[in-house]
Write a structure and sequence with these properties.
alpha+beta, SH3 type barrels, 3 domains, five-stranded antiparallel beta sheet, 12 strands, globular
């Protein structure tokens, strides 16, 4: 038998995030970073008790941003007598801010529909790994309250292209795929040298060298419109930390782009947008929102209809108007046209 240490199997990112939410919901007093990294499914497999956990800590920082992006109210608590120390800082998700308001109830038919939706999730209450993590949390003195969330997700949140691209990276081969760039009428075939798969703001991206231009490009996986084909041509060796550089580039774009939005108080848009990572309010109560991709943000903001009014930048205003006008055109033959037209005026300054 080989004496070489077997590497732990990779944990899917959605399972890791779900386990993190479970753990932070399960404690009243919060968990420190080291407690999270050493006990929670998806981190503990790579945690070194007396080793270097810098890359794992960076992963945790990105995961915090991702769950906040989903609207989860993640709180940080300073240790008494030691404010500002990241090592003693505790994290938790307050159950009151996570659960449905007490005045919301479901009818029998609505409950039946929710039960049908739950059938798309894994059987049982908590998976074996989640139970093991929960036992470890209790062993370090974390108080838990039952019931916890009752299902672990089976639905894959990754894009269809993720698996083949991940295989291509493992095999070190060149790939091709059809890619639809915003503004283009049709997808164009791209042949690339894959360098890294990264997740930023909840979306998967591929850092690669586009063979058509001979330069690095970052591709959004959700814009890959057809099958990813692996070639038999080996990828040339390209030194560097490509995942880190891709994330730094995406973060720089996110920091540089800021949308100015008016949001109606008390609406779904208000709850979701104001809690987003990096969101802030100006002196007039308008929301300043960082974004990476104007087309993706326009899709989302158009979905809120009259709950939001987009003030800038101009390219984002135009993109939202175009989507709302397309909705008007699509429903011009029925009674929805009037409401869609009313919504479209909300984006104009």
């Amino acid at each position: 038998m080989s004496s070489e240490k077997r590497q732990p199997a990779p944990i899917p990112v959605e399972e890791r995030l779900f386990s993190l939410v479970l753990a932070l919901l399960a404690t009243e007093n919060g968990l420190t970073k080291s407690e999270i990294l050493s006990t929670v499914q998806g981190y503990r497999q790579r945690y070194a008790t007396r080793g270097d956990n810098a890359s794992l800590e960076r992963q945790f920082e990105r995961d915090k941003d991702d769950i906040r992006e989903l609207g989860v109210p993640l709180e940080t608590i300073d240790a008494p007598g030691d404010p500002g120390n990241n090592q003693t800082l505790r994290y938790r998700i307050p159950r009151a801010g996570y659960e449905l308001p007490a005045d919301i109830a479901f009818s029998p038919s609505e409950t039946a529909l929710l039960n049908l939706a739950a059938m798309a999730w894994r059987e049982g209450s908590l998976s074996r790994e989640s139970r093991r993590a929960l036992l470890k949390l209790r062993s370090i003195g974390a108080e838990t309250s039952d019931p916890l969330l009752g299902y672990a997700p089976r639905i894959r949140t990754r894009d269809a292209a993720f698996g083949p691209l991940n295989d291509a990276l493992s095999k070190g081969v060149i790939v091709s795929f059809p890619y639809l760039k915003p503004g283009d009428p049709t997808a164009r075939l791209r042949t690339v040298v894959p360098l890294a798969l990264v997740q930023h703001q909840g979306r998967w991206h591929l850092k690669a060298i586009d063979q058509g231009v001979g330069e690095p490009r970052t591709f959004l996986l959700s814009r890959i419109t057809g099958p990813v084909k692996l070639s038999r041509t080996a990828s040339p060796s390209v030194p560097g930390d490509h995942a880190a550089s891709a994330l730094a580039e995406l973060e720089s774009i996110w920091q540089a782009n800021v949308a100015l939005i008016e949001v109606r108080p008390g609406t779904d848009a208000s709850v979701r947008l104001v809690r987003r990572r990096g969101a802030s309010l100006d002196d007039d109560g308008r929301v300043l929102l960082h974004f990476t991709d104007a087309a993706l943000l326009a899709d989302e903001l158009a979905g809120f209809g009259p709950e939001v009014r987009v003030l800038g930048p101009e390219r984002l205003v135009d993109a939202v108007i175009a989507r709302l006008e397309a909705a008007v055109a699509a429903h011009r033959t029925d009674g929805h046209a009037a409401s869609a037209a009313s919504a479209s005026t909300e984006v104009r300054p």
